[in-house]
Amino acid sequence: EVLFTNNGPYFDDFLSYAALGARSSEDHEHRSVVSSIDAPVGVKHGTDGDLVKGVNSVQAVQASHDLARYGKHIRTSGNAYAHLILRGSEQKGTNYDPASLALASKLLRDGKRKLTNPAILVDASHDNSLNGSGRDPKLQKYVVRSVLEKILDQREEYALMRGFMIESFLREGKQPIREGVSRDGLSITDACLGWDATEAMLRETADTVDTYRGRAST
Q1: Predicted model pTM
Q2: Strand, coil or helix: 16
Q3: What is the pLDDT of residue 217?
Q4: Distance (Å, whole) CA 13 – CA 24
């Protein structure tokens, strides 16, 4: 995730994927900087769940920008592989359902926007993993399963789906930031799936796809 816009010289050459979070995607500086990255960029809609604003951000990242960077005047080429990430919202709830995918797809395909390579990822965490008491990382596998079933059923609303984003680390859960934090492999931000649960979910997803392909080929 691109949090700080001036760290590029340290690792830009190693990037294979980057993302703008819900609180950065509407910031002009973040949009301009990632429009110069030579790697696909996922763009989340804001925390309010407004898909129009999210697609506006994708459009901005795909566009060329002029900015001052590292003491020079830079003109970016735009990132042709910028795409939308659906992450739900507290106000509007989850948004990996057919109606949300249909709206997001319609906005991305709007010819007036002239977007290239329209694509969608579903963030299985954040506000797509809400239960009655808050976010539950264990619900991520149900989000993935629900969306995958609709993709394999070839639902038209899911035609632009290209993958998922999950919160995963070595240990399950999270820990507060405080003096003496020492539990290695345990998140200090969002609660995550542990490695064992992540592996099981990936294998289950792969097996589901393999089974579908086997049936489709007979």
Answers
A1: 0.94
A2: coil
A3: 67
A4: 22
